[in-house]
Design brief:
heterodimer, A: alpha/beta, TIM Barrel, Urease, subunit C, domain 1, 2 domains, 8-stranded mixed β-sheet, 15 helices, globular, B: alpha/beta, 16 strands, 24% helix, disordered N terminus
Chain lengths: 430, 460
């Protein structure tokens, strides 16, 4: 039996049978209205990147009740509205980082504050970071003050190739249930060199474990009653993990697979076809080498465009990865892959542009594209009437270092620069 | 001869690599430095022959004064000859029109592990940390450097012309660091910066505690300090015995290095995050009569800016790293800005194979954190953080680090403002030779490791 995807022991199996199985479908958290702002705010005379359409030079955007009430070149400022003069300013949607450990890691090196992963190797697909989310993590206000208003929170995992479930949060709130926008967004899997290590030393073993997990999940779904009565063979995964995989089998939830080598990426594409599951790739440092395959399979990728250090898993890593994949028609999302420095998402996007990605594509890669991929485009990702008012007013190009996020709204709620780092700065500046 | 060897290893800054550039290769067994003393592991670096170059019409940041608009830089025979507004083109000079471009000194990283932790990042070449004893002052980082590390080439494309390669931070005394010119070479001796002093890597705080807590100690910060003091007591005794007329002790590599610090020849590069620990290290240095050249990482340097200024100790810092361990919890983006306000010596370092490719961007973030919070920082200030200040901390500021006549022609032409995210190093000169030109793929050196394992179209 695999040391990584081990079935429950007999005692646990016995106790598990006492419970009625739950159906853990895709849950869209109910968004409370508590953060909505009664005040109406108008940002005028600004350069507005709507993302959904052409950039509006000298436009106005109106925020009311947490939503975008109006946006355009000829929008009238409502009476009694607070007016922010956006002359010379740039307005964009708040950014979204597609892969972070925000809220589940306070200090990486202090184990009691790090909930990203478990050493319990029997916990796999059902492990869900929502149960560990700390809305008061100090990195959250440090991040949002720099114009990043949403993030996908990703399980770390270091035992199993199946790492568990990630969630999408917005960065304004004091309760986890207020912040969670989508739960789960996918089930995270590690293949490639790292997956091989988890699977006992071979990429082939990692793929085999993944296939076994899906086939067991399918068999379980077809034979739940027999399983509950103890009349079914042992599965590689626990009951809850098999349940967690059901929406994957129904194509309602993607597998988000960390993989870099071009050959491994092609294997994943083949696997996805054979198993009829949706996949998103994370890392994909050699993605450009198989970009046409990714584009024709319509498989999105999450990458850090600054990763170019070669290893045996990613010899083709290049700063031009984002540009080349975008040019080939791949759906590209950008990420810092960080926790404390998610704010560097801006630098990631700027470097993608510097190495050939169109500016507007890089903007979309941190707003609209992840919104579409993670199924929240009806509420977020562009500056359109009716959408949540995640709005940032920048004093210049948002990707430039000298540029500051002057105003940050999350669902209409203005964020203040009152984070721990700012307080340390104020304390020591005199 | 034996006496000379001992004295050299013990005392000589010139012992490190004193061979003048371009000098004839020494005969084995007869390697001698400027002072006539024998040299161990001498530098065999020789500058590449190159025609004289005149860069014109650039915005020049000299790291030694105000910017020069429409400026020129003339280099010849590996040296900077002139910097200014109106420089005539001597006959035979290659003229580069740098209209719209910026020129700076070559970027210098005071804290790197390239070659010691090379790519690919596998155990077989992971040679940066001799984690067998809290005091491994006897090891030299250069003996781990793999010159085929492809990360040297990536760093050159980011404008890096020189770097100090340090041992890791597991140990109280980690060993000697080496400063190299960032040139392609089959041997590390071929990279060693001629005349550069050695560094001694030391470490505070969590790392030694964590690594040795269950292995005989130190297990605590008080154990760390006791470990430093014990080492220095032994070194002081060794130095005294070596200088006495009586029977000299057997050579000891560990104590040679520590004695080199007490003699002022080897510069202390101390990994230390917390303000209170830096203050304690300064007291240890006072007790034994040596100077700390730079605190590295120093995420809390902003809390003791005045002390660092008063003691003339540079803070080698990241722009924004914080939170990955408790001793980094108080890291703030305004660290450099507050140090600037106090007039302290600021260095933006990388400690990272990604970061070393973009020290200009890291400096730009730290500069912005000041300017956005009421502490004005100019391009002229920020360029020093990645050129002359690291040169000072590693002891090569008399030779490089600024654009001044007589200095090594280590020069970068940027395709725009070096503190913009969209700007790239376009041409990188080391000792006057064009070793990277973004516009000329024939200059894009690839290490032996990268040959034949990649599609041809890969560029990084």
């Amino acid at each position: 039996m695999s040391r990584l995807l081990r079935a429950y022991g007999p005692n646990i199996m016995a106790s598990a049978r006492r419970f009625v199985p739950l159906t853990l479908g895709v849950m869209l958290a109910v968004l409370p209205a508590s953060t909505a702002h009664a005040q109406t705010t108008a940002i005028t005379n600004a350069r507005i990147h709507t993302i959904s359409g052409p950039t509006i030079e000298n436009g106005t955007i109106v925020i009311r009740n947490g939503r975008i009430a109006a946006v355009g070149a000829d929008v009238e400022v409502p009476e009694n509205a607070r007016v922010i003069d956006g002359t010379g300013k740039v307005v964009t949607p708040g950014f979204l980082d597609a892969s972070t450990s925000l809220g589940i890691v306070e200090i990486g090196g202090v184990s009691g504050t790090n909930d990203a992963a478990t050493s319990q190797e029997r916990l796999t697909a059902a492990f869900n970071v929502a149960d560990a989310l700390n809305p008061r993590a100090t990195a959250i206000p440090v991040t949002r003050v720099e114009g990043i208003t949403r993030a996908v929170v990703v399980p770390g995992g270091f035992q199993s190739i199946l790492r568990g479930q990630g969630i999408l949060i917005h960065l304004d709130g004091l309760r986890a249930d207020e912040m969670i926008v989508r739960n789960p967004v996918g089930i995270y899997v590690t293949l490639g060199e790292s997956g091989a290590g988890r699977a006992g030393g071979s990429r082939a073993a990692a793929m085999l474990l993944l296939r076994e997990a899906l086939q067991d999940a399918r068999d379980y779904a077809a034979n739940r009653n027999a399983f509950m009565q103890g009349n079914r063979r042992e599965y590689a995964l626990s009951r809850l993990d098999l349940e967690a995989l059901q929406p994957v089998l129904r194509r309602e939830l993607p597998l988000i697979i960390s993989v870099n080598r071009a050959a491994d990426i092609l294997n994943v594409l083949q696997f996805a076809r054979q198993e009829n599951v949706r996949v998103i790739l994370s890392g994909a440092e050699e993605g450009w080498m198989v970009a046409s395959d990714l584009a024709s399979a319509d498989v999105p990728v999450i990458i850090n465009s600054m990763n170019n250090i070669p290893g045996f898993d990613n010899l083709g890593a290049t700063l031009e990865n984002a540009a080349r994949m975008h040019a080939a028609g791949v759906t590209v999302m950008l990420s810092s892959f960080d926790g404390s420095n998610v704010r560097n998402l801006r630098q990631v996007a700027g470097n993608a542009v510097s190495y050939g990605m169109p500016h507007e594509a890089a903007l979309a890669a941190v707003t609209q594209v992840p919104a579409q991929v993670f199924g929240i485009a009806d509420r977020y990702g562009t500056l359109e009437v009716g959408k949540d008012a995640d709005v940032v007013v920048w004093d210049g190009d948002p990707f430039e270092f000298a540029t500051k996020a002057e105003y940050v709204f999350i669902r209409g709620h203005e964020q203040l620069p009152d984070n721990r780092q700012q307080m340390l700065f104020e304390r020591y500046r005199n | 001869m034996k006496r000379a060897l001992v004295a050299c290893a013990l005392l000589g800054i010139g012992c490190a690599s004193a061979q003048a550039p371009g000098a004839q290769s020494p005969t084995p067994g007869e390697r001698r430095g400027d002072d006539g003393e024998a040299v161990v592991f001498p530098s065999t670096y020789e500058r590449r022959e190159a025609p004289p170059v005149l860069i014109r019409n650039a915005t020049v940041l000299t790291a030694a004064g105000p910017r020069i608009e429409n400026g020129s830089v003339l280099m010849r025979d590996g040296k900077i000859v002139a910097v200014g507004r109106d420089i005539d083109a001597p006959p035979g000079v290659r003229v580069i029109d740098a209209t719209g471009k910026w020129v700076t000194p070559g970027v210098i990283d005071s804290h790197s592990h390239l070659g010691d932790y090379p790519a690919p990042g596998v155990d077989a070449v992971s040679d940066g940390n001799e984690m067998v004893n809290p005091n491994t002052a006897e090891v030299w980082a250069e003996h781990s450097v793999w010159p085929q590390d492809p990360q040297f080439d990536l760093a050159r494309a980011g404008g890096i012309t020189a770097l100090q390669i340090l041992p890791g931070s597991a140990n109280l005394f980690g060993g000697r660091g080496v400063t190299v010119k960032n040139v392609p070479s089959v041997t590390v001796q071929g990279m060693k910066f001629p005349g550069a002093p050695y560094g001694l890597k030391m470490a505070c705080g969590e790392n030694p505690k964590r690594v040795y807590g269950q292995r005989g100690g130190p297990a605590t910060r008080m154990g760390n300090v006791a470990g430093y003091r014990t080492g220095w007591i032994r070194a002081a005794q060794y130095l005294e015995d070596m200088k006495s007329d009586g029977r000299r002790p057997t050579r000891d590599l560990e104590l040679e290095t520590l004695a080199g610090v007490l003699e002022g020849d080897i510069l202390v590069q101390h990994h230390c995050y917390r303000a209170d620990e830096m203050a304690q290290v300064i007291d240890v240095a006072d007790e034994f009569g040596y100077k700390v050249s730079s605190f590295h990482h120093a995420v809390e340097a902003y809390k003791i800016g005045e002390l660092l200024k008063e003691r003339d100790i540079c803070a080698s810092i990241w722009a924004d790293w914080w939170g990955f361990k408790l001793e980094a919890y108080d890291g703030i983006k305004q660290n450099a800005a507050l140090l600037h306000q106090d007039g302290a010596c600021i260095i933006i370092h990388s400690d990272d194979a990604q970061g070393i490719q973009r020290l200009n961007q890291e400096a730009a973030k730290a500069m912005a954190a000041g300017n956005q919070n009421g502490i004005r920082i100019t391009h002229e200030d920020a360029i020093r953080w990645i050129t002359i200040n690291p040169a000072k901390a590693i002891g090569v500021d008399g030779m490089t680090g600024s654009l001044e006549p007589g200095k090594m022609a280590d020069v970068v032409i940027w395709d725009g403002d070096p503190f913009s995210v969209y700007t790239k190093a376009e041409k990188v000169f080391i000792d006057g030779a064009l070793l990277f030109d973004r516009l000329d793929p024939t200059t894009h050196h690839q290490s032996d490791f990268m040959l034949g394992i990649l599609p041809r179209e890969v560029t990084r």
